[in-house]
Amino acid sequence: MTMKDSSSKTFVGSFNSVMSLKRYLRRLRSYLSTLLVSIFILFLLSEPVLANDDYTIGPSRCVSLREGQPCFVKLRVTWKKESISHVCLYKEKDELLACWEGELGNAILPQSITSDTRYILKNKLGDELSSVEVKVSWVYRKKRSRRRWRLF
């Protein structure tokens, strides 16, 4: 009788392990399918690596000591493109500052401005690639002249 009990326990024990293995495999398949769908969605939403064009202009703030005084800023222009490109930097849409040609580049342009100014990076066809508005701020307000009334 102990023989039958031991063999029946082994059969039941193996049946439980097979059922738990099947459950485990079902869960694993579910997790993998969810993972694959997530990766596929991320792949569709991401931009292709080959067309990794990057254009930046900065900084976006310039600080002057007093209100009304000119603010001195060094504009940093960087670009990276897959093919050779022709890019130009404009001040307030129509004033041409500089042009460059190449796949990648980095330039620093010193500027003196007294009010908020917009800088635009355009390609050869005139399409806007990047832009920044440099905001002018100051540490001290402009002193108002005091009128003193004098009798003599």
Describe the protein's topology.
Blueprint: H1 2-45, E1 54-58, E2 61-66, E3 71-91, E4 95-113, E5 117-123, E6 128-140
Largest pleated sheet: 6 strands, mixed
Any idea what the CATH architecture of the largest domain is?
A: Sandwich
Note the beta-strand portion.
over 45%
Number of structurally distinct domains: 2
H/E topology pattern:
HEEEEEE
Gross geometry: elongated
The count of strands amounts to 6
Q: Name the CATH homologous superfamily of the largest domain.
A: Immunoglobulins
Supply the CATH class of the largest domain: Mainly Beta
How would you name the oligomeric state of the polypeptide chains in this document? single chain
Distance between termini?
132 Å
Mean pLDDT: 76
- Catalogue the unreliable spans: 46-52
**Percent in helix:** 25-40%
Which class do the helix and strand fractions yield? Answer: alpha+beta
What's the CATH topology name of the largest domain?
Answer: Immunoglobulin-like
